[in-house]
Design brief:
The complex is a heterodimer.
Chain A: E1 5-7, E2 10-13, E3 19-24, E4 31-38, E5 42-50, E6 53-57, E7 64-68, E8 74-78, E9 87-94, E10 104-105, E11 109-113
Parallel strand pairs in A: 2-11
Antiparallel strand pairs in A: 1-3, 3-8, 4-5, 4-9, 5-6, 7-8, 9-10, 9-11
Chain B: E1 3-6, E2 10-14, E3 19-26, E4 32-38, E5 45-51, E6 56-59, E7 62-67, E8 72-77, E9 86-93, E10 99-101, E11 105-110
Parallel strand pairs in B: 2-11
Antiparallel strand pairs in B: 1-3, 3-8, 4-5, 4-9, 6-7, 7-8, 9-10, 9-11
The chains are: A mainly beta, B mainly beta.
């Protein structure tokens, strides 16, 4: 158990809908990262937050947004969903923004868009 | 453009042999490089981190090397076991911003 909790584990929704994925980082970790993993793309970095502030942005679509709350949990919002958004979405956390430490990954949310 | 490549999509080896996985990067200058293990449907699990000024790092049966001239990292599993079968991912730090992952190599250790 990594200590990172993601909910829900599975989500099935229709095209055009909006969903929210939730991540609780390890106790004390200030950085949260979101990654998307689809079969043909590997792990793609979406966005990083540190202590409530956006720190780095990757290939995140405009239809997607995220935030980190004062209690450090994070939410990833996906809207106007398309079939191609079906993927595993992982959240990871680390103690700080210095990259000399490991990241701890949650078990992921499997999103299926039908 | 920036790219991380891992030697092959899949690698089959016999139990007891040494598995060697390769990670090559282009247009990155990582200060750190990490290796993770991922089992199907599960999140990646950290294995080892190596810094740019370290040539080699070991942990039990695992060994990682980092050659900044060749822009390459090698990951070795000695005395491999069927339980080592998984996908192995390398990750480079992206100019201190975040980690970018390679596509992974699926290792199968045959009994």
């Amino acid at each position: 158990d990594s200590g990172v909790t993601q909910t829900p584990k599975h989500l099935i929704t229709a095209t055009g809908q909006r969903v929210t994925l939730r991540c609780s980082p390890r106790s004390g970790d200030l950085s949260v990262y979101w990654y998307q993993q689809s079969l043909d793309q590997g792990l793609q970095f979406l966005i990083q937050y540190y202590n409530g502030e956006e720190r780095a942005k990757g290939n995140i679509l405009e239809r997607f947004s995220a935030q980190q709350f004062p209690d450090l949990h994070s939410e990833l919002n996906l809207s106007s969903l398309e079939l191609g958004d079906s993927a595993l979405y992982f959240c990871a956390s680390s103690p700080n923004i210095i990259l000399n430490t490991e990241a701890f990954f949650g078990q992921g949310t499997r999103l299926t868009v039908v | 453009s920036q790219k991380i490549e891992q030697n092959s999509e899949a690698l089959n080896i016999q139990e007891g042999k040494t598995a060697t996985l390769t990670c090559n990067y282009t247009n990155y200058s990582p200060a750190y490089l990490q290796w993770y293990r991922q089992d199907p449907g599960r999140g990646p699990v950290f294995l080892l981190l190596i810094r740019e000024n370290e040539k080699e790092k070991r942990k039990e049966r695992l060994k990682v090397t980092f050659d900044t001239t060749l822009k390459q990292s090698l990951f070795h599993i000695t005395a491999s076991q069927p339980a080592d079968s998984a996908t192995y991912l390398c990750a480079c730090d992206n100019y201190g911003q975040n980690f970018v992952f390679g596509p992974g190599t699926r290792l199968s250790v045959l009994p």
